[in-house]
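Please fill in the sequence for the structure shown.

STRUCTURE ENCODING:
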């Protein structure tokens, strides 16, 4: 009878392995797939910042009221799509460009420029401690006029 018990255990083990055949190739493929998904997700992580406006400004034709905003974009640029939110509400999604400076910004700043009509246009957002800023100016627009920084 002892051999019968051993045979039953061996039979159960064999049937369990048959139900879940894990070969080295299957495990390796699963691990590689998991790593690819993890790396892809980290590659698309969003970059975030904050923006405080003291006066109404226009950006890409949309007017932003004074207040605190969150900005977010994906990718390393130079061309990005910037999302501007207030609280949980998406206010605007606008095209922009990332620019690199040699020195880090000393404070968060919204750089504006008055248009011919007198409206303040948002031309750049600078982030405290970062060398990267977001630029809204047209590629061939001149930068002869100094912008007004708002903290």
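FILLED IN BY: designer on duty
SEQUENCE:
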């Amino acid at each position: 009878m002892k051999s019968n018990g051993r045979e039953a255990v061996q039979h159960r083990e064999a049937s369990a392995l048959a139900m879940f055949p894990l070969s080295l190739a299957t495990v390796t493929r699963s691990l590689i797939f998991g790593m690819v998904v993890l790396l892809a997700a980290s590659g698309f992580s969003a970059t975030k910042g904050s923006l405080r406006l003291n006066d109404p400004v226009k950006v890409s034709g949309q007017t932003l009221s004074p207040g605190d905003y969150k900005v977010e974009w994906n990718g390393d640029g130079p061309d990005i799509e910037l999302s501007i939110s207030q609280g949980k509400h998406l206010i605007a999604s606008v095209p922009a460009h990332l620019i690199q400076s040699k020195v880090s910004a000393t404070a968060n700043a919204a750089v504006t420029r008055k248009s011919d009509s007198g409206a303040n246009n948002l031309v750049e957002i600078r982030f405290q401690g970062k060398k990267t800023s977001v630029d809204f100016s047209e590629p061939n627009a001149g930068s002869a006029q100094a912008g007004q920084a708002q903290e």
